Amino acid sequence: MNKPLRRIALFCGLLVLALLIRDNWLQYVKADELRTDTDNRRVAIERYATPRGDIIVDGKAITGHAETTTGDFKYKRTYKNGAMWAPVTGFVSQSYGANQLESIEDGILTGNDDRLFFRNTLDMITGKAKEGGNVVTTLNAAAQKAAYEGLAKRGKGAVVALEPSTGKILALASYPSYDPGTIAGGGDSDAEAWKKLDKKNNPDDPMLNRALREVYPPGSTFKVVTAAAALENGLYSDADEKTKSPLPWVMTGTRTELKNEGNIPCENATMRVALQWSCNTVFGKIGADLGNDKMLEEAKKFGFDEEQFTPVRSSASVFSDDMEPSQVALSSIGQYNTAATPLQMAMVASAVANDGKLMKPYMVDELQAPNLDTIAKNDPAELSQPLSPENAQVLQSMMETVVEKGTGTTAQIGNGVTVGGKTGTAQHGENNSKNPYAWFISYAKLADGSKPVAVAVVVEDESAVRENISGSGLAAPIAKSVMEAVINSKK
Amino acid sequence: MSSTTNSPTHHTSTIGSIGTPSRRNTELALLVFAVVIPVFAYANVGLAINDELPAGLLGYGLGLGLLAGVGHLAVRKFAPYADPLLLPLATLLNGLGLVAIWRLDQSKLLQQIGQAGGKATNQLIYTALGIALFIAVLVFLKDHRTLQRYTYISMVGALFLLLLPLVPGLGADITYGAKIWIQVGSFTIQPGEFAKIVLAVFFAGYLMVKRDALALASRRFMGLYLPRGRDLGPIIVVWMISILILVFETDLGTSLLFFGMFIIMLYVATERTSWIVFGLLMSAAGAVGVASFEPHVQTRVQAWLDPMHEYLLSRNGSNDGIVHSEQAMQALWAFGSGGTLGTGWGQGHSELIRFAANSDFILATFGEELGLAGVMAILLIYGLIVERGIRTSLAARDPFGKLLAVGLSGAFALQVFVVAGGVMGLIPLTGMTMPFLAYGGSSVIANWALIGILIRISDTARRPAPAPAPNPDAEMTQVVRPS
């Protein structure tokens, strides 16, 4: 019986060997794949095991963390004035993942980023607990507050403020907003809040970041781009040169007259006067005269038809290709297919204010290690040059006229601060049946010639009486208070 | 491997046994390690989870030490020539199992779903009962050949135990699908664990008597010795019982274990390879046949082939009326997250396995917290127990002892393979417990009895042969020699 016994011994040995091989396969060959599998809850547990780093504005954290009492996630995110800052921070939730800045800079905030690897290893050896790094933003708390509170008074809308010389985002507000703190945890109340915020249950869609992700017809504010195209292409070389603009003007290739709003002096008006009173006929004809290609080229130089990464992605604004001349005319006054994010229109104002140079908009100034060492710093970068400095100054003087004695007088600041701007009232809906959007884009110039802020405001107040909606009445006061906030915080 | 040439040597022992040292002191030294290692592990869990030495450390250390000491004394007294490795290895596994169970007791998640909390204390009581049964085996089973007398009673007993979970009102459906438990009052018992031993006694007794008939009376066909029809009878019966277990108790593991044990013992008894071929064919046919209509078995196979899909079905719900379980995938994640060296005691998240985390799936906790290194060590310990058991079988001087020892060792090996292989995703998952490591009274008590029997057989095998009796013939020759 001993021969088969020895074979059974061998067989049992092979069984154990098979288990050993399988174990090596699982715990050595496949280990990393299994360990980092996103469905493996340990990934999430580890992520919430250490306090998350903070997002910082003006040297103060706008986020925090709290220890949870239930479940296997130790810490959850908290937000200070969450609704106001939501378009900047996005959210990070134990149940619903993360978005925007919280998601993009997750590696730094959790401390898992490769750039922190050496430090983490050192901490592990010295027995220090792992910590997350900080994200320092370019935002300006006073400007953000002015923007958010201004919108809260007026209804739905968005504000973007930029520093023209660098592209730093100073304010990024969207209304209605939501408090990301209400969905940060993993409990029932978080689930309930999440359900309430869902677009399906909430027509206001508070989680939509209107400043970056919603495109609106820009209306008359787009005339700034059209004016820039006219100057750059030499159609008209000066603000005070009479344009060839008949009134009424029948759009090229059609029998339809392009109308102006009210009885305004638009016949053969100079571009200054046309911008001052927002003449559709003048700028519509400029667009038709320049043609689709030249208009598109100029719009693209301002950033149209391209997503921006701030690093939070913005939707691409639209200026169409392959249009009939009449469609180009309509597009050139910000109607037809033309659509822009509030960020895009702020970039337009910013490029004009910065003497024609468009800076890449960004909101992360630097990334910090847990001990506040700088890991990475963002430097201002030039995106394009839509205007020559001379033409930019011509356009500036036109925009300053708008605020001084045109449609934008409500944005005047005084005290030696000159404001250049442009109103817009964009029609939308079928046959323009819905309430128009009120726009205002502007920049502020201080006595010393510096221009610390450019801003774009859009208000989409559905409940307001139609006649009352105009860039001047609704949007310009918000732009004004944001510019004042930036100027005051510089003092 | 013709049996005719081998049969004359059957009754001679192969291992020289005269003057064998008892090795009791070796056993004692090893036992010290087997107690100290779990005590350190226990302290480690406390430090990792609560930053302090666990309050029960002294009690636990003394308890385990006392049990091991009493076990050792019993061996020293009643089985002085027994194999010195079996007791320390079983003690080590039992101790580590207690630590892992205690570690999972600390999990709030498992406490919430009633899978943890005070389980380690229960397990320590079960261990004490197990050691008591172990000692009882040594004290009352003076010679393992006594068991031979109970061959057919064992058969009836084993069948009774196996079919017990099917009795209405007694069977407890507490695990996902498999009906291998009975409920008596507040206790749940897995009769299959005891049936394993009783069945081994029956097979050993039966095969010892029938092996010549089975081995010799066969026709040669295509290089294989085919058994006669009437000799096939008992094999068919065992096979049918396995299939019945599979169909009615829906437990692939138990079924495979019993049939596999029978084939091993049959092969050892008859030395006929053809039996193995038959066995494999029949088990394959049985498994495939049952799997073709039994949804529970199908689910297990699918979970094995694609655990991630099964996980998602379990998470997102399915409307096919079958209970899907995420355990298979959770166990794989636990192993993978442990990596080479593991997270360290108390720092893993194997509680995510939830149901049966401290019993069927306890190896995953070792995988995560002790890593590849720890699991390999544990698998090698199991391998050592099995090989010591087979060595005992080799050394045994009587065919009954040989068959019983190899049957028990083989069943032990198959059980470890089926459970560990299932948890690690090598084969489909079945509901069985890791011997000694897993939480569960039936398992611990039955396995201590198993070790007790192996120790008894090895003691008999290694005991110095009695001094040769004076040969009456020699004396007579001397008497008639002329002086």
From TrEMBL, chain B:
Transmembrane segment boundaries: 28-49, 55-73, 85-104, 124-141, 153-172, 192-209, 230-248, 254-270, 275-293, 361-382, 403-430, 436-455
Location of this chain's protein in the cell: Membrane
Membrane topology according to the record: Multi-pass membrane protein
UniProt keyword list: Cell shape, Membrane, Transmembrane, Transmembrane helix
Keyword Transmembrane helix: yes
Annotated segments matching region Disordered: 464-483
Keyword Transmembrane helix: yes
InterPro entries given in the database record: FtsW/RodA (IPR001182)
Official protein name in the record: FtsW/RodA/SpoVE family cell cycle protein
